[in-house]
Design brief:
This protein is mostly beta strands and 371 residues long. The chain has helices at 3-32, 177-181, 358-368; strands at 40-41, 60-68, 74-81, 86-94, 102-103, 111-113, 118-119, 141-151, 154-163, 168-176, 191-192, 204-205, 214-219, 225-229, 248-249, 258-262, 267-269, 272-280, 290-296, 304-307, 328-336, 339-346, 350-357.
């Protein structure tokens, strides 16, 4: 064997060894990667879409709140946009949590002019609405993105009150639980819990008291901020949240390096409070909202136990890009028969649901998302 042949053989052997080492490294790295939790979209999504025969919801039906009664029926309050550009709240429900089998033909809550705290009487007469006051094209007036919690004998609905880009506040209206489930829409007069000189969105009330007080989550970035109050009512002091308006810096080199805000109210589990949230990546600016998850300490929820290392839902389906491209936005979630159901708006137009075993979600967070 010549010297050239020997050198060539050594080179081939070295190359083969390098390939084997590289393959091993890639295999090890793949084993360390956080597998994405298997959250499945309902095969019949979207479960609700705009209805052209109802003027108050012809443009969009999305961002639903969710609450479950003792029988297991899931009740949804959703944001609806009508031909006048005003956002109102509609109602629907589902026995199995997946398929809508009840949907009212009229809104159950509405505000004409949130700045003056004027509640709209039912039924709605769109001819009385001045469309000039509520221009479309990305800005709407009224009540947006409801959330629901059931505490003691009352149901608390929070929402974003919008009356121009200089007036976005957190509104609250309360109803007796019996009236809600019997569809007697005897809402209290709305009141605002955020300060009037700031723009605030997406605040959450915990579904039970913590150490005897109501807990209101108003900031998730750069740290968890919670206000504890004795009562939530029209006389309570407004909360001055330090969070700035708009997307905030998230984790560097992660999928959520820009945080949009919190989603549904916290869900109590045996591992902690599960909080879903919305974020985006600077590397994918064309995708407006992805969904992630936080796990907070059950006794002191300002402490984060785990944070999802990857998004749990990404807007890839047509109904998540139909009107406003790249949006999955959840306002409601519930656990039914150990399955987590997440109700979300797709593309600011449709209502959708995705689900996964709650144990798998928590196991994934604790294994791959520990802080």
């Amino acid at each position: 064997m010549t010297l050239i042949q020997i050198e060539l053989s050594i080179a081939v052997i070295a190359f083969t060894i390098a390939i084997i080492i590289l393959a091993y490294i890639l295999k090890v790295n793949r084993s360390k990667r956080p597998n994405v939790v298997n959250i499945k979209r309902h095969t019949k999504n979207p479960i609700m879409s705009p209805q052209t025969h109802n003027e108050w919801e012809t443009v969009g039906t999305f961002n639903p709140a969710a609450i479950q009664d003792k029988s297991g029926r899931v009740h949804l309050l959703y944001r609806a946009i009508g031909s006048d550009g005003v956002s109102r709240i509609g109602y629907a429900s589902s026995k199995d949590g997946l398929n809508i089998d009840e949907r009212l033909t009229y809104p159950v809550f509405a505000m004409l002019k949130p700045r003056q705290n004027i509640v709209q009487e039912m039924p709605v007469d769109l001819k009385k609405i001045d469309p000039i006051m509520y221009p479309s094209g990305g800005s709407w007036g009224g009540c947006e993105d409801p959330r629901l919690v059931h505490i003691d004998d009352k149901i608390y609905m929070t929402f974003n009150a919008f009356d121009g880009w200089d007036f976005i506040r957190i509104g609250v209206s309360i109803i007796k639980a019996d009236d809600f489930f019997e569809k007697k829409w005897k809402w209290s007069k709305p009141f605002f819990i955020s300060s009037k000189d700031k723009i605030n969105k997406n605040w959450l009330i915990f579904p039970e008291k913590i150490k005897g007080k109501f807990a209101i989550l108003h900031t998730i970035v750069p740290e968890i901020k919670i206000e504890y109050v004795d009562n939530i009512n029209a006389t309570m002091k407004e909360i001055d949240s330090p969070r700035k308006h708009g997307p905030q810096p998230g984790r560097i080199d992660f999928w959520d390096n820009m945080i949009r805000g919190a989603g549904p109210p916290p869900i109590k589990t045996d591992k902690g409070w599960l909080v879903l949230y919305h974020a985006m990546s600077k590397d994918e600016p064309h995708i407006g909202y992805k969904m992630g998850a936080l796990l907070l300490d059950i006794n002191d929820p300002k402490n984060v136990i785990a944070r999802s290392p990857a998004p749990i839902l990404v807007p890839n389906e047509w109904y998540e890009n139909d009107w406003k491209p790249g949006v999955v936005y959840a306002c409601g979630a519930t656990i039914k028969d150990n399955i987590l159901y997440v109700y979300y708006g797709g593309g600011d137009k449709h209502i959708c649901v995705a689900h996964t075993p709650i144990d798998k979600m928590l196991e994934w967070l604790l294994k791959y998302g520990r802080i």
